[in-house]
Specification:
Elements: H1 2-19, E1 32-36, E2 48-56, E3 59-68, E4 71-79, E5 85-90, E6 95-104, E7 107-115, E8 121-131, E9 137-144, E10 149-158, H2 161-168
Length: 169
């Protein structure tokens, strides 16, 4: 009888864990300033790119600085890793929407959407971000909405956050 009670208790615990609401956590390893490494990346690449990420509680604050052919671009968002859409504001006034999902430890998927006049969402791109186990390299795989590969970018973590942001501006 005792064995049956123990097994029943374990089964109920496992079932309860499986049915529990998922907890969403920000990828703390993603926090910092990341500088694009041209020599390790493929696909269309800008002249310069950095990504600055801050984690505040359950919110990821993201800023992306790009310089290409003398033109500077900025994209910013604040989002939770919960699969819901959040606005990403761009320097030119345009807005796209980003939905973040935690796939594995140190691995995040970002889906980029546009909204039409009626508010309907259309998936336009996907990014898969993976932080290396040592926390020094960020791998960013870019895909179109249909899943075809656009490029593979490698970012190195920078210790000089202010220097990187100043260079981008």
């Amino acid at each position: 009888m005792k064995l049956r009670s123990v097994l029943t208790g374990l089964a109920l615990c496992a079932l309860g864990s499986a049915l529990a609401a998922p907890s969403y956590a920000q990828m703390k390893e993603f926090a910092g300033t990341w500088i694009l490494s041209h020599s390790k990346s493929t696909g269309p690449l800008p002249t310069y790119e950095d990504v600055i990420v801050k984690i505040n509680g359950d919110t990821e604050e993201y800023a992306n600085h790009i310089t290409d052919n003398g033109k500077k671009q900025l994209g910013e968002y604040q989002a939770k890793v919960d699969g819901k859409e959040y606005p990403e504001k761009h320097e030119d006034g345009s807005v796209t929407y980003i939905a973040l999902t935690d796939l594995f430890p140190r691995t995040e998927e970002a889906k980029i959407y546009t909204h039409d006049a009626s508010g309907a969402s259309t998936l336009v791109a996907r990014f898969f971000r993976v932080v290396s186990p040592d926390g020094k390299t960020l791998y960013d795989t870019l895909c179109k909405a249909d899943g075809s590969l656009t490029g593979f970018r490698v970012f190195e973590k920078s210790s000089g956050m202010k220097k990187a942001a100043a260079k981008a501006q």
